[in-house]
Design a protein that fits this description.
By secondary structure, the protein is an alpha+beta fold. It is about 35% helix and about 10% strand. β3 and β4 form a beta hairpin. α3 crosses α7.
Length: about 280
């Protein structure tokens, strides 16, 4: 090989070595940068703070404190004292999502909304009879007006499926503790106030996409009472009737007493709302 060819070959090797070193440095540099970035970021699945109600069996007081922070324009419930507020020592597991609660408990073989509409005239007498029989099965807790046992009510098959899901959702959290602000930062919580309770049940039926305060529920749906569901709301408190049965946090006889009530309440001073067609 001539001197010129050797020089060219050596120069080519030198350039290749420089390029390889540069690539290696870039690779190492990228790895270091990625490592530093990974070190600065939270590990997968980690959160800087637990959202209210995200962990089961959290202290109710902790849940309430977090939930209040996430509530917009919430007004203090004037009936909070009648809702048997839970002490800080009370713990309760978190609820399922409203959608899961609604779909898991709906009676099997329920008729569709179209079937209900087509058979409405024939079923009115059956509905009245079923409603009366259902009321007779509701047993108050001693010393109070709320339902005993596990706090749930039977889900009738003679009502539209959406109403069955609302009842199923209401049943899911019927005996949960009451804490002001509970159920507002998230539907999944371990305690619910008046509007958090109503919001959860409505969401189970697909009638609400996010928790609302009692003041916001004043404009939910359409004005006036409904056939199956009627919501009563003002700036400080809210409750509803579902298939003729009262669902309210006020009037319960204990921390775990049911939100389903066997006695009517005074509806004066409340805006009356319903969902169109229901």
């Amino acid at each position: 090989m001539s001197f010129t060819r050797k020089a060219v070959a050596l120069l080519g090797c030198a350039l290749a070595a420089v390029a390889l070193a540069a690539c290696g440095e870039a690779t190492v540099g990228s790895g270091v940068t990625a490592s530093k970035a990974a070190a600065k970021s939270d590990p997968p699945g980690a959160t800087k703070s637990d959202p209210p109600g995200a962990a089961g069996a959290d202290a109710v007081a902790t849940s309430a404190k977090g939930a209040r922070a996430g509530v917009a324009k919430e007004v203090v419930d004037p009936l909070e004292a009648d809702s048997y507020p839970a002490p800080a020592s009370v713990k309760h597991a978190s609820a399922a999502t409203p959608a899961k609660a609604g779909s898991a408990i709906v009676a099997a073989g329920a008729p569709s909304d179209a079937e209900i509409r087509s058979e409405l005239k024939q079923m009115q007498a059956v509905e009245r009879s079923a409603s009366q029989a259902q009321h007779l099965r509701l047993t108050p807790v001693a010393g109070g007006e709320s339902i005993g046992g596990n706090g749930t009510i039977p889900i009738p098959t003679s009502v539209p499926e959406v109403i069955q899901k609302v009842i199923a959702g209401a049943n899911e959290i019927a005996d949960f503790p009451y804490v002001y602000g509970g159920g507002h930062a998230s539907f999944v919580d371990n305690a619910y106030d008046c509007s958090g309770s109503v919001s959860y049940a409505l969401a189970a039926g697909g009638l609400l996409s996010a928790p609302e305060t009692s003041g916001q529920l004043e404009s939910w749906g359409a004005p006036g009472p409904g056939k199956y569901i009627t919501v009563y709301a003002n700036a400080g408190h809210t409750y509803m009737y579902v298939d003729g049965i009262l669902y309210d946090t006020a009037g319960r006889s204990g921390v775990y007493a049911s939100r389903w009530q066997v006695q009517p309440t005074d509806n004066e001073g409340y805006v009356v709302r319903h969902w169109p067609g229901l």
